[in-house]
Automatic annotation (TrEMBL):
Keywords: ATP-binding, Carbohydrate metabolism, Glycogen biosynthesis, Glycogen metabolism, Nucleotide-binding, Nucleotidyltransferase, Transferase
Sites marked Could play a key role in the communication between the regulatory and the substrate sites: 71, 109
InterPro entries named in the record: ADP-Glc_PPase (IPR011831), ADP_Glu_pyroP_CS (IPR005836), GlgC_bac (IPR023049), GlmU/GlgC-like_hexapep (IPR056818), NTP_transferase_dom (IPR005835), Nucleotide-diphossugar_trans (IPR029044), Trimer_LpxA-like_sf (IPR011004)
Binding-site list for alpha-D-glucose 1-phosphate: 110, 175, 190-191, 208
Protein name: Glucose-1-phosphate adenylyltransferase
Length: 422
């Protein structure tokens, strides 16, 4: 094993692994927020994109050969990866490469998660990995994949599935599994209507994280079998994993906090409410997800911007922010920001109040606005005097209001609501 400068161990297993990040999904539950971008390209955490978390996990784990499979409206995702992830050394065999859907086999686009990997089989063969790590590109978490790879080899597994405990009422959105005392998976159902609780619990289920480690030869063989199987949806959770449990060693790897051994942080920010909540959690004193952890940095493309600035100190016109995160390039001019998160180059003009809200990059809030419990998309220009988040019925006429009352605003909604302003 090799010891990295951070004190973590980087093994030969990680160097012999190819990571495949599935990043082609739209994320339809985010509604208009993904009209022009794929879900992995959605902004998160004040300066990042969701895709930065699995990519950073790979790099920090010592996995430096990474293929990102894209499909749905991938321009902003492609641009972000090209600008922010080109620092790996190609001459050392390290890379983050983009693999867009190209109808490489037949005339169809990616028809499922397994089909997406199948269509790039020739590229995977060229890289000649011993193990293939398959990741979802749209979850937020920090995880050392090296420990999962080590467990995979130690247990002589053919396939290892990363899993985490989730509340039973949420489990129908995931693949749910049962395991024996050796962590071997005995049952796997993809998004069951009536999920079963895990042993020893009445309100928790064991859910797939969409993380799979395959022995390469097993992956190749089973992808070929799946392509020839009539009626298959060509999906890892629906087809590949359930079909292999009797004939192969399919093991579970419970994801735990490496320090406490308790439940680890993992978020599927696939709805407006969950995305809003997860962003605002970061403004807490000690949030579960520590973005200030120098031992496990989250890498990203960083726009060159000046520091955030707060101007005016007059009574009734004082620029300040409390219990908030304010990114570089922001200007809070004689306005109040409470328990909110502002991405780069946001401007909030005088006499406005922002509370419990997330403002994506380059949002401009005019004077005398009041905004509460809102998620404002990139580039929105909020007209002076606008009130958002105080009257649900009025908000529904102009914007999208979530089931928990979070108001999502996009530039297109503003254009329609205020046609004479822009």
């Amino acid at each position: 094993m090799l010891t990295s400068t951070s004190g973590r161990f980087v093994s030969r297993l990680t160097r012999e692994t190819l990571a495949i990040v599935l990043a082609g999904g739209r994320g339809s539950r985010l509604h208009e927020l993904t009209n022009w971008r794929a879900k992995p390209a959605v902004h998160y955490g004040g300066k990042f994109r969701i895709i930065d978390f699995p990519l950073s996990n790979c790099v920090n784990s010592g996995i430096r050969r990474i293929s990102v499979l894209t499909q749905y409206k991938s321009h902003s995702l492609d641009r972000h990866i090209q600008r922010g992830w080109g620092f790996l050394g190609g001459e050392l065999g390290e890379f983050v490469e983009l693999l867009p859907a190209q109808q490489r086999m037949g005339e169809s686009w990616y028809a499922g998660t397994a089909d997406a990997v199948w269509q790039n089989l020739d590229i995977i063969r060229r890289h000649n990995p011993a193990y293939v790590l398959i990741l979802a590109g749209d979850h937020v978490y920090k995880m050392d994949y090296g420990t999962m790879l080590a467990a995979h080899v130690e247990r002589e597994a053919d396939i290892t599935v990363g899993c985490i405990e989730v509340p039973l009422e949420q489990a129908s959105a995931f693949g749910v599994m049962n395991i024996d005392t050796d962590n071997r998976i005995t049952k796997f159902q993809e998004k069951p209507r009536n999920p079963e609780p895990m042993p020893g619990s009445d309100d928790q289920a064991l859910a797939s994280m969409g993380i799979y480690v395959f022995n390469t030869e097993v992956l190749f063989r089973e992808l070929l079998n799946d392509q020839n199987l009539p009626g298959s949806s060509h999906d890892f959770g629906k087809d590949i994993i359930p079909s292999l449990m009797k004939s192969h060693r399919v093991m579970a790897f419970p994801f735990r906090d490496p320090i406490t051994g308790g439940k680890a942080y993992w978020r599927d920010v696939g709805t407006i409410d969950s995305l809003w909540e997860a962003n605002l959690e970061l403004t807490g004193i000690t949030p579960e997800l520590d973005l200030y952890d120098s031992e496990w940095p989250i890498w990203t493309y960083q726009e060159q911007v000046p520091p955030a600035k707060f101007v005016f100190d007059d009574e009734g016109r004082r620029g300040n922010a409390v219990d908030s995160m304010i990114a570089g390039g922001c200007i809070v001019s004689g306005a109040q920001v409470h328990h909110s998160l502002l991405f780069p180059r946001v401007r909030v003009h005088s006499y406005s109040e922002i509370t419990d809200s997330v403002l994506f990059p380059r949002v401009d809030v005019g004077r005398n606005c009041r905004i509460r419990r809102a998620l404002i998309d990139r580039g929105c220009q909020i007209p002076p005097g606008t009130v958002i988040g105080f009257d649900p019925e009025e908000d529904k006429k102009r914007f999208h209001v979530s089931s928990k009352g979070v108001v999502m605003v996009t530039p297109e909604m503003l254009d329609e609501a205020y046609p004479h302003v822009f």
